[in-house]
Amino acid sequence: MFRYALQRLLSLGLSLLAASAAIFAVVEVIPGDPAAYMLGMNASADTLAAVRAELGLDQPLVLRYLGWLGGMATGDFGISYTYRTPVSELVAERVWVSLPLTIYALALSTLIAIPAGLLAAARRGRATDWGVMGVTQLGVAVPNFWFAILLVIVFAINLRWVSAGGFPGWEGGVFPALKALTLPAIALALPQASILARVMRSALLDTLDEDFVRTARAKGLSRRQALWSHAFRNALIPVLTIIGLQFSFLIAGAIIIENVFFLPGLGRLIFQGITQRDLIVVESVVMILVFAVILVTFLVDLAYAWVDPRLRRR
User: GO CC terms on record (predicted)?
Assistant: First the structure.
């Protein structure tokens, strides 16, 4: 198990290095000069040169990349061109919106999808199965931002149960904060829950056709007992894969959802950084999100080895 974890950890480090180079290259080729954006169209050449030197934009790309990489390794993500504050402080303020939102949405997705997949597999070919699969097909087809707007119209405007947007902050209490995150979390969770439920059903049905399940049934176990005692754990590997992938999809979807609900999270910070040409913010925040996704993938790989010990010997 230790050797397997070490191999996956090395793969994580190489993935991070490749991702940092790709992110830096992509952001740097975006047209436009951050200094010119900050000073306006009528700024003099001398003023532009001074600002570019202050921001380090006059240095070669390789030196800027190495400096950015070294700073991230020590927790220094640079100074925002727009806000003139350390990027680490901006991230620390916003992460307490995005991280709870992602975890909330992932928990809702899992809590909805696994029982739905189990129910559909247990009722294979019956009306319940068709109903669950029909609902999940609708969930896959509907974009999360459109569903978010629909939730706002129904629950915020018509029923007035929650606010249409904004975030009161955790200092105002856990319940008001979770209440503000509920509609965004549902909008993020339902499309992912639909995908996960279909994978759960498919994995269970495939496992139920395996020889060891048929042997268990021949020994007297009912279909329900065989499903819970033997099929469920063996069907978890593809489900864990989707749950790990969902984390990245939820982070990407949060960029849109946070703007729909005016949430001051990392997704909205990236959007503002792009529109304001704040390259250091975009690079650093995207790199942090990539690190989070790769870390979750690493943890999912370890979960594979726990669920299926055969993987530890590879």
Answer: plasma membrane
